[in-house]
């Protein structure tokens, strides 16, 4: 009999076996989920063994479903469906009007059964690096006085109030500023390194800066044409494509302002 319960910190050591081979370390994310009150991680348990995990993140009236993972030997047994159904009902009871997720090819069919509809897709640009001889004079480290502008820019791009999450990743953040105004920001430690900018000049400068620091991937919504053209013209190879899906009310977002998503767990 499979039961669902909240994930605890002492569960973390017992979920590593669920790690899909091409995903980043799930224990890092579940440690984060377990220690922040806007995240709601769950585990599926049978005979004291964890068979699956999932998380819901709440941003007021919007929420994200993420890291819905079932142990390989227990897949296609209804556990993924059970976890997804639980997250949907949980967010609904929290007053969430729009539920979002990023669907892999494996999960897409199941999400459609719950009523999720595709609204966009993301392109992966695999590990690449760009040489930059010196730091762009318009890029500097984050200051506390930048917070409100960063939150405003993110809300314009995402259509969500994501301040609780963003405030956790400002220690190593950078901004692009010109004429005493901030046009973009780069959260280096947030997932894949999130970049949001109000114009192409700032966005491309921050994207170039990101890839001059280390070899890494960048994932972009297909509407972010300037960023896609920039990476393509600099030799980055396009990898897989994944769907962005929504259940409930669609949200008014501006994907063209996203020059690097945070990750599959948050868009």
Which labels suit this protein?
alpha+beta; Aminopeptidase; globular; 2 domains; 8-stranded mixed beta sheet; 267 residues
Task: Set out the fold topology.
Blueprint: E1 3-6, H1 26-34, E2 39-46, E3 49-59, E4 62-70, H2 79-93, E5 98-103, H3 105-113, E6 117-128, E7 139-141, H4 147-158, H5 163-166, E8 173-178, E9 181-187, E10 194-197, H6 200-213, E11 216-221, H7 225-233, E12 238-248, E13 258-260
Parallel strand pairs: 4-5
Antiparallel strand pairs: 1-2, 2-3, 3-4, 5-12, 6-11, 6-12, 7-8, 8-9, 9-10, 10-13
Explain the overall architecture:
The structure is a single chain. The chain is α+β, with helices and mostly antiparallel strands and 267 residues long. It has helices spanning 26-34, 79-93, 105-113, 147-158, 163-166, 200-213, 225-233; strands at 3-6, 39-46, 49-59, 62-70, 98-103, 117-128, 139-141, 173-178, 181-187, 194-197, 216-221, 238-248, 258-260. The strands form 2 sheets. An 8-stranded mixed sheet has the order 1-2-3-4-5-12-6-11, with helices on both faces. The protein has a 5-stranded antiparallel sheet with strand order 7-8-9-10-13, with helices on both faces. It starts with a strand and ends in a 7-residue tail after the last strand.
């Amino acid at each position: 009999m499979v039961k669902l319960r909240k994930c605890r910190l002492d569960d973390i050591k017992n979920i590593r076996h669920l790690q899909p081979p091409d995903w980043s370390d799930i224990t890092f994310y579940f440690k984060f989920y377990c220690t922040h009150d806007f995240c709601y991680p769950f585990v599926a348990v049978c005979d004291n063994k964890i068979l699956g995990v999932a998380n819901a993140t709440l941003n007021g009236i919007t929420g994200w479903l993420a890291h819905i993972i079932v142990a390989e030997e227990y897949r296609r047994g209804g556990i993924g469906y059970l976890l997804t159904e639980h997250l949907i009902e949980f967010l609904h009871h929290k007053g969430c009007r729009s539920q979002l997720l990023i669907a892999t090819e494996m999960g897409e069919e199941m999400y459609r059964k719950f009523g999720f509809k595709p609204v966009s897709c993301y392109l992966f640009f695999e590990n690449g690096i760009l040489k930059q001889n010196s730091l762009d004079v318009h890029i500097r480290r984050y200051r506390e006085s930048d917070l409100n502008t960063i939150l405003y820019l993110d809300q314009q791009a995402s259509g969500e109030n994501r301040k609780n999450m963003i405030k956790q990743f400002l220690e190593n953040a950078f901004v692009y500023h010109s004429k005493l105004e901030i046009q973009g920001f780069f959260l280096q430690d947030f997932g894949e390194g999130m970049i949001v900018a109000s114009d192409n000049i700032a966005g491309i400068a921050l994207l170039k800066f990101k890839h001059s620091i280390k070899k890494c991937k960048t994932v972009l919504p297909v509407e972010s044409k300037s960023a896609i053209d920039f990476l393509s013209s600099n030799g980055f190879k396009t990898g897989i494509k994944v769907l962005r899906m929504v259940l409930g009310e669609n949200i008014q977002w501006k994907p063209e302002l996203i020059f690097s998503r945070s990750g599959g767990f948050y868009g």
